[in-house]
Amino acid sequence: MVKHYSGVMVIGEQHEGIIHPVTFELLGKGRSIADKLGCKLYGALLGYRIKELAKELIFYGADEVFVFDHPSLKYFDPVRYKHNLVKLIKEVKPELVLVGATNIGRSLAPRIAAALNTGLTADCIDIQVDENGDIVQIRPAFTGNIIAHIKTRTRPVMATVRYKIMRPLKRDTSRKGRVIEVDVEDIGDTGITIISKVKDKEVSIADADVIVACGKGLKKPEDIKMIEELAKLLGGVVGCSKPLVDEGWMSRDHQVGFSGNVVKPRLYIACGISGSPQHLAGMRDSEVIVAINLDPSAPIFRFADYGIVGDLYEVIPKLIKEIKRRKLNHERGDSK
Amino acid sequence: MGLHIIVPIKYVPDIERVKFDVEKGRIDRSSAPGEINPFDLHALEAAVQIKERLGGSITVVSMGPPQAEAALRDAISRGADRAILLTDERFAGADTLATSYTLACALKKLQPFDLVICGEKTVDGDTGQVGPELAEHLGLPHVSYVSEIRDVSRDGILVVVDMGRSYYLVKLRMPALIVVTKDVNKPRLPTLRDKLRARRAKVEIWNADVLADIADMSRFGYIGSPTTVHRITFPEERGRKARIFTGVNAIEELLKVLEVVLKW
Q: How far is B19 from chain A (nearest CA, A)?
């Protein structure tokens, strides 16, 4: 008898022994879809010396976790990772495979999809099951100007899903599940050699809770210091719009926008950013958006929750001064 | 002997000028003039820089409507030696799987090649999937998110890859495929002379029959595409109407907001 496609599989991601949070978000979504379809939720995790991490996927909702622990998988080699996962998917036959739309996921998932000759939908912001029981993948396209609802007629249905969109379940250490250690096949030379780590990023802006971003309203690169000071006071990091990267004032690690990083912090403060479509596509889903801009007709105000029409060179120093004063008062208050 | 580099490019509408009919749920591509996908210019520039150092030739390939010939001509003015347009009704309506399969068939016809360089994603489809899918169809090693090309030789290419939290130095054996980001270079503008030369250059037109001997034609176009868009909606404006703080109390008001948001 031919085995039918059943189950939802989440391909987890870990970096130097730390699980990327998008994995837990996918498990949260995967759990609700699996419950709706009445099937199992599988997890998969690849790396080296990561066996202990596998149970975390159970705590966040998986029923069964396949762990691939092998020295050859220490670093992300798309061909090696693909080889192991294609084998697994062919055996387990899940109906739906979810992968984080991170740099690693967006490099890996297409290779798996092409190897399986199945459909892959990129960068989804939601996955639903419609009244016919069909899986519907929802994603922005045309630089975020439209939202496409996509169905896949091959199995498994595959999708990469954006970070910080889905909600993870609460970590529950009493959850029971099965961890299955897979015999990893070393396929030898793939033509890819990861030689060394060059450096960590200056900031991991996609992870930040608070971002203070600056744009063309900034007059000279030295003024980034002021933005940095505000960001630090608010416990956040500095972002910027594309022109500042093009000018060489900041590295792309800081860039927010369609060609930079898509972010979704709790608080986004846009200073001297007019709000081009390319920038908006990278930050419009932030929880609270504050805009500070000289031009009251700047598009950014249509996407912001709060705004100050004014010169950032007046507003920000005042804001910094006021926050410092309050913090000082607060500390004095605490010590009493 | 220099390298043979292939750069797949896409003809896309100028995204700032596309009209979106929110009420009818339609995209009017004809409202915008077309151009080379801006991300692909970085791939082409990377190829030109390698050619300048090591010699060789660059072939650009595009799948699209007949108008896409303009994008290929632009690519010639920017340094491509040969341009091929895959255009046929049978290619139309392709998703990334069918697109990458069709391109893979075309690239097989263009063998031998040493390196394929793709742009990060397109401004219309915005998937970034065609590069890695193409590598899989061709059985080539690949890396995506290449932010720097350190060294190239006949045997291999040394690149810096952005893996999200860190950058890694990676070596690929040739033939290989790399997907580059905008960090990799700053594309140059073609000179007027280059533009005039490109106007007279030949763009080869290939239809599905050209690929017939090596292709499974059921994998082309709409028929070969497992994913279909069954509905289009428009993002909610979320009803965000900025509350604007003005006057002497503006900072005070903003601080109140920050207090709530950051739970001070």
A: 10
What pLDDT was estimated at residue A1?
44
- The domains found in chain A, sorted by start residue, are 8-181 (3.40.50.620), 205-335 (3.40.50.1220)
Looking at the complex, report in whole angstroms how far the Cα of residue B194 sits from the nearest Cα belonging to chain A. 25
Q: What is the pLDDT of residues A45-57, one digit of tens each?
A: 999 999 999 999 9
Q: Name the residue among A204, A257, A251, A249 with its Cα closest to residue A224.
A: A249
Q: Which residues of A touch B230 (CB under 8 A)?
A: 136, 149-151
Quick one: closest CA in A to B120, which residue? A259
**By the 8 A CB rule, do A253 and A201 touch?**
yes
**CATH superfamily, with its number, for domain B3-219:** HUPs (3.40.50.620)
Encoded tokens for A242:
């594309």
Contact yes or no for B101/B66 (Cβ under 8 A): no
- DSSP codes, A97-115: EEEE-SHHHHHHHHHHHHH
Mean pLDDT (chain A) is 94
Cβ-nearest to A119 among B95, B165, B235: B95
Element (H, E) at A89: helix A78-92
pLDDT in tens, B33-49: 889 999 999 999 999 99
CA distance A231 to chain B (A): 12
ipTM higher than threshold 0.90: yes
Which among A320, A212, A314 is positioned nearest to A270, based on CA atoms?
A212
3-state secondary structure chain B: CCEEEEEECCEEECHHHCEEECCCCEEEHHHCCEEECHHHHHHHHHHHHHHHHHCEEEEEEEECCHHHHHHHHHHHHCCCCEEEEECCHHHCCCCHHHHHHHHHHHHHHCCCCCEEEEECCCCCCCCCCHHHHHHHHHCCCEEEEEEEEEEECCCEEEEEEECCCEEEEEEEECCEEEEECHHHCCCCCCCHHHHHHHHHCCEEEECHHHHCCCCCHHHCCCCCCCEEEEEEECCCCCCCCCEEECHHHHHHHHHHHHHHHCCC
A73, A181 contact by CB (below 8 A): no
Buried/exposed A77-94: b ≥16 CB within 10 Å, e otherwise: bbbbbbbbbbebbeebbb
> What distance in Å separates the CA atoms of residue B2 and residue B152, rounded to the nearest whole number?
11
H or E, element range at A238: strand A237-240
Could you state, in order of their start, the residue ranges of all structural domains in chain B?
3-219
pLDDT at A246: 87
Residue that the structure tokens 């979504």 belong to: A29
User: pTM of the prediction?
Assistant: 0.91
